[in-house]
Amino acid sequence: MTRNGPVALIFHTLVVIFMLAPLAIVCLVAFTPENTLSLPTKGFSLRWFQAVFHHPDFVQSFWNSLWLAVLSATLAVALAVPASLAITRWEFPGRGFLNALFLSPLIIPHLVLGVAMLRLFAVVGATGSFGWLVAAHMVIVTPYVMRLLIAAISGFDRSVEQAAFSLGASEATVFRRVTLPMILPGVTGGWLIAFINSFDELTMSIFITSPSTVTLPVRMYMYATESIDPMMAAVSALIIGITAVAVLLLDRVYGLDRILVGQH
Amino acid sequence: MSFLELKNITKRYGPLTAVGDVSLSVEKGEFVSLLGPSGCGKTTTLQMIAGFVEPSAGTIRLDGRDITRAKANSRGLGIVFQSYALFPHMTVFDNVSFGLEMQRVPKGERKPRVEEALSLVHLSPYAKRYPRELSGGQRQRVALARALVIRPPVLLLDEPLSNLDAKLREAMQFELREIQRKVGTTTVMVTHDQAEAFSISDRVVVMEAGRITQIDQPYRIYEHPETEFISRFVGKTNLLPGKVATATGAGATVSLAGIAVPVENAGLSVGETVTLCIRPEKLHLTAPSNGLLTGRVADRFFLGSQWLYHIDGPLGTIMVVTPNDGSTPAEQGAPVGLEWSPSVVRVHRGAMAEAPDVALEVTG
């Protein structure tokens, strides 16, 4: 491992500051007692956090987003595990096409997807349906899960499965007791990234949410176009807090290096 | 009928024949090694015995039962993989216990059997560790214990020692043999390392380009290689092309670049093209005037217990290995004589093949 020189060190510090400073400031501003996004702030107050919880539409949107993200991430993983196993391990006609198809949402702008989904929903009469919203989010998050899973499965020593077979395990048992536990870091990492992407998604969701299914980012966007007050900062601070706790938990349980970089 | 019998086993991948017409009988309790360079089909053969690869033709019988098409998980064989293939998310104990669990051995019975297997490979104190916390040699033992605990009729070893460093490899060789003797399991090992195959096997099967070229005891293979390929692949050897000059009764002479070399007659006819094969340690250095050949020491290498000489002479460079008996070795550039007894010369019929790369790759 090479050590960083002073110039590189300064550069890295600046990059980190540039990335973290806005988040830190948003969190600070959230505690202001004033009516504007002001910094430095004169005092400390939780009034804007209280305000969030007095906006039932925000609370509703939060739950919408949470369910949406949990469902779409879970379904995407359930779809991606067998798909990645098939694509990585077997030669079959259409394998390359299938791989490209699963990864294609990555390169299609969400704006385009949003318009397309809007039309689709209108055609199938699904406007306002939460189930279809989940399906649309699955399209967006599946590629991320696939990428991580394919990486995890490619580095997999097949002889471990053969060993389990030779010891008398059935194919289902081998999958449950050996394959799945061994790709679990990839599965968990994929789920996490899918969750975050879905929870965060704005561009496509603007087109396809209905008043009853408005997600948190869409709600925030709508609110922010009308007025900017510290309540936005409070919502943001809450999201940052929840995310940080989730990531910390994950790091404790599995280690982020293993999940996101694929190191064992 | 032998315990494990392969009959005309063939595996084709499209136009490529990976294993062609391999027949092999292994007796109960025997330790047999499949030896050959990479790509010779030895691993494919092992995988067919294991049930991971289905033969294109031929039959495999185990204890009289046809297992050619049986699934790998119904054969009950113990397999040690080159990568050890331990379950990384399970402790050593759970790794070893897995096979018993699959055989639905009751929990109370599993524990003593796992402990017995671990003590066999001297790993009892490590039962609670995870594979990543073990050294290469220890992982290898876990793999062995895991394979043996199910009391398999046949133990299959796929290059079991190739991932260990030289010192450990040698120690593990002997230990492997000791354990195999103790449990008496019929064993088939695949290896490209002839020293490994020779030191611990009852019989060695030499494979070349998907076919078996010789099956014999290690000593016999070394002393009586049936093909030139084997004499090159197994240990170091001097190959000398010549023509049969005379052949009378038990003796014959072969003319090598004008020099007549006595050999044992094995139905040779005068004028036949042959290749002589002489192991370097069968040659002796003498005074220049005494030997069958004279030459000059071109190079010498000290190997600790032995000296390896390269002798330049009328037949090109000849390798000679002499034991280091403590006396002063021949100097570089010194003229020396070479002598040997006719009985150590192996005669292969036909001209020398052009493929000395194998001999360079594998040294004894």
Automatic annotation (TrEMBL), chain A:
<dbReference type="Pfam" id="PF00528">
    <property type="entry name" value="BPD_transp_1"/>
</dbReference>
<keyword id="KW-0472">Membrane</keyword>
<keyword id="KW-1003">Cell membrane</keyword>
<dbReference type="GO" id="GO:0055085">
    <property type="term" value="P:transmembrane transport"/>
</dbReference>
<feature type="transmembrane region" description="Helical">
    <location>
        <begin position="66"/>
        <end position="88"/>
    </location>
</feature>
<feature type="transmembrane region" description="Helical">
    <location>
        <begin position="7"/>
        <end position="31"/>
    </location>
</feature>
<feature type="transmembrane region" description="Helical">
    <location>
        <begin position="231"/>
        <end position="250"/>
    </location>
</feature>
<dbReference type="GO" id="GO:0005886">
    <property type="term" value="C:plasma membrane"/>
</dbReference>
<keyword id="KW-0997">Cell inner membrane</keyword>
<keyword id="KW-0813">Transport</keyword>
<dbReference type="InterPro" id="IPR000515">
    <property type="entry name" value="MetI-like"/>
</dbReference>
<feature type="domain" description="ABC transmembrane type-1">
    <location>
        <begin position="62"/>
        <end position="250"/>
    </location>
</feature>
<feature type="transmembrane region" description="Helical">
    <location>
        <begin position="130"/>
        <end position="153"/>
    </location>
</feature>
<comment type="similarity">
    <text>Belongs to the binding-protein-dependent transport system permease family.</text>
</comment>
<feature type="transmembrane region" description="Helical">
    <location>
        <begin position="100"/>
        <end position="124"/>
    </location>
</feature>
<protein>
    <submittedName>
        <fullName>ABC transporter permease</fullName>
    </submittedName>
</protein>
<feature type="transmembrane region" description="Helical">
    <location>
        <begin position="174"/>
        <end position="196"/>
    </location>
</feature>
<keyword id="KW-0812">Transmembrane</keyword>
<keyword id="KW-1133">Transmembrane helix</keyword>
<dbReference type="InterPro" id="IPR035906">
    <property type="entry name" value="MetI-like_sf"/>
</dbReference>
TrEMBL record, chain B:
<dbReference type="GO" id="GO:0016887">
    <property type="term" value="F:ATP hydrolysis activity"/>
</dbReference>
<dbReference type="InterPro" id="IPR003439">
    <property type="entry name" value="ABC_transporter-like_ATP-bd"/>
</dbReference>
<dbReference type="GO" id="GO:0015697">
    <property type="term" value="P:quaternary ammonium group transport"/>
</dbReference>
<dbReference type="InterPro" id="IPR013611">
    <property type="entry name" value="Transp-assoc_OB_typ2"/>
</dbReference>
<dbReference type="GO" id="GO:0022857">
    <property type="term" value="F:transmembrane transporter activity"/>
</dbReference>
<dbReference type="InterPro" id="IPR008995">
    <property type="entry name" value="Mo/tungstate-bd_C_term_dom"/>
</dbReference>
<dbReference type="InterPro" id="IPR012340">
    <property type="entry name" value="NA-bd_OB-fold"/>
</dbReference>
<keyword id="KW-0547">Nucleotide-binding</keyword>
<keyword id="KW-0067">ATP-binding</keyword>
<dbReference type="InterPro" id="IPR050093">
    <property type="entry name" value="ABC_SmlMolc_Importer"/>
</dbReference>
<dbReference type="InterPro" id="IPR003593">
    <property type="entry name" value="AAA+_ATPase"/>
</dbReference>
<dbReference type="GO" id="GO:0043190">
    <property type="term" value="C:ATP-binding cassette (ABC) transporter complex"/>
</dbReference>
<feature type="domain" description="ABC transporter">
    <location>
        <begin position="4"/>
        <end position="234"/>
    </location>
</feature>
<dbReference type="GO" id="GO:0005524">
    <property type="term" value="F:ATP binding"/>
</dbReference>
<keyword id="KW-0813">Transport</keyword>
<protein>
    <submittedName>
        <fullName>ABC transporter ATP-binding protein</fullName>
    </submittedName>
</protein>
<dbReference type="InterPro" id="IPR017871">
    <property type="entry name" value="ABC_transporter-like_CS"/>
</dbReference>
<dbReference type="Pfam" id="PF08402">
    <property type="entry name" value="TOBE_2"/>
</dbReference>
<dbReference type="InterPro" id="IPR027417">
    <property type="entry name" value="P-loop_NTPase"/>
</dbReference>
<dbReference type="Pfam" id="PF00005">
    <property type="entry name" value="ABC_tran"/>
</dbReference>
